[in-house]
Structure prediction request, 732 residues.
Amino acid sequence: MNLERTSRYKWRRGFSILWLLIPVLLAWVWGNYFSDDGYISLRFAQTIGGWGDFTAQFQATSQGYTPLSPISWLVLAALAIPTGQAVTAATMISALGWGAMAVVWQQLLSDWRLTVIDWLVPLLLVIGPIVLLTQGSFVSWFLAISWLAIWLTMRQRWREQTLVLAMLPLISLSISAAALMIILVIWRIMITRNIPRFAVGLLATLSLLMLMGIGWQVGRAPLTMSFPLDEWAIWSQSWLRTGEFVWLFVLLALAAVITKPETRPIAAWLLFALLDPNLVGQSVLMTGLLALAGVGIFQVARWFVDRRWLEVDDGRAFGGVVGVLCLLLMVSFAGKYDRLPQAVRSNEAGEWLNKNSEGGVLVVASPAVGFAADRTFRQWSGRPDQQNWAAFIRLAEQLSPDYIVTNQALFWDGLIYLEWWQDRFVRVHSAGAYEVWQADSQPALTAETVPLNVRLENGVKLVGYQQSPPLIAPGEAVNVSLHFQVDEPFGEGFATVVWLPSPLDGSNQAQRDLLTPRAVPSNWWRPGQIVTEQFVLTTTEQISVGGYRLTVAFREQDTFDRMPVYQNDDINPVDRIQLGYVAVPWGGEIGAAVPLDISYGDEIQLVGANLPAAETSPAAALDIELFWQALTADRPQYDYTIFVHLLNESGEMVANADSSPQGGRYPTGAWVPGSLIPDTHQLVLPADLPAGRYEVHVGVYLPETGVRLPAVDGDGQPLPNGSLILMPLVVR
Prediction:
């Protein structure tokens, strides 16, 4: 008898070693065969091995995709090894976790006296593609420790159970971990019929964590729901499509729960895992169903043998039923090997990004692509519906990602053909089903946003705009982005007209009419959301030097009538609004002009002048050419008027030539620093002007108030009355 028991223990020990070796070997084959860099399914390996910032990992956790793993982060971060080695190390450690879980399963199933099943089901676990699903992550060890806690509870080894339960939060801070701890503590209380003090505090703490976790899930969900049903539906559909007999998992698990009461706490754990729509929750559900399905196979086979429907001995009947059911499970499980080519392609896309992008870029991609790229990434698991598309657009406009990696999914198909997408991204690489898109925004989107407060009658607000470039040559285009916002959904769209009128006669120099919304459908807009519409205005080759004011108006979609708009708090409507200037600069030089260095109001500078003769006669017309430029980094704040005054010896003005620069063609508000602006003023002397000595003064003032800008010479000395004595003039 002792010899038989020793032999059985050796047999189990041999299987235990086998369970530890098989997943490690498979991980090594997958990594080295399918990838030159020795890794394929990266998942969270780089997160826990490559990031040295605990805060960054915690922020990634808050997005709902990766429950934080303190112990795995601390262990691999402490190694401080290069990313590629960290991935390899994490992959091997993860594979060992699957082997450890198989060992626990074998012991648990053996304790339940489920012969044959106690090695067939662990074998399915260690060779199944679920290992690939979480390869390189802490999830396998979380599951191994969880099942160890379950086995210790079955054995009523309370001291070891307490120690293992204390380890769970260090491996995963998740709803699944809190749920299992609550279940096992209650299970222990039911068995021992006493309540240790630590159990009361632990139950209260874990219950609070569960409530917080559920509340967090509700707040994170795109829809207002209590449970992430849509996310599970997508995951379940993808899982069901991989095998024809996946439904057997659920049926066999139900058979186990009905016939073997010991499995019911495990089933309760799986139900709580439904609150965890991430890799931890998915893995708990998949492995839990597999374990319960194994128990169900044994129970079904025993029930079949008890009925004696076949004229064979009980052992052959039992083995036949078990073999058939396990074969069906294996076929369903094998269907998930379709992840291998997908993982290879995702790795290829990530490696391309690693070689062709800068280290500081932000990538929206799956974890496998993001980790292979070794770039900061944001995952987006999307459902193909309007609300989720709209949510992604809001996120993308907030984050401004440098790259987005798409695959052949309905979610991406609903986006990449939108005008919004075409305006912002260009495809730069294809790797099978994966396509890499690089941000290719219109220049206006990189310019500074100018806030606006404009209201349309349909409830839409124009809250800001961007324009670029500030200077154009004839024939070049101006890029304009208008930022709209709504307080409530609106129905029918409207036409937005953006044009460049001439500052002199109002003639149109460039125009763009577009139906709004063009880039994002109106039923995707959400209250408070800012939607950006882009306009490209191409000027003609005949456009002259000067400053042109961008102008915007809105028309009804059906009647094309102008829509009244309201600016700021004005209750009086207008039919158009004016934005910033676009300048067509002068390309000449000062030449032989007299150099000057006079600053007016720290905004503009007089840098030179071509002066007429110092002697003249009454009724003469004197052409005075001034050369200006903007001083500040921004354009001048207002459209100022330039004055040229002729003063007599008593300081009285006897003639003047006041006008906006270039007669109104080039307002000061359009001046761009670095550009030279020639400005000619013709000073016509009165016919009855007495002979004598006079002075020509030059200055700048605001036409609405007549207040002059202070003038300062090159030495920093202020000039009286804000004017420069440009030249003396003798009238004969």
Q: What stands out?
A: The CA atoms of residues 456 and 565 lie 5 Å apart. The radius of gyration is 38 Å. The chain has 21 helices and 25 strands.
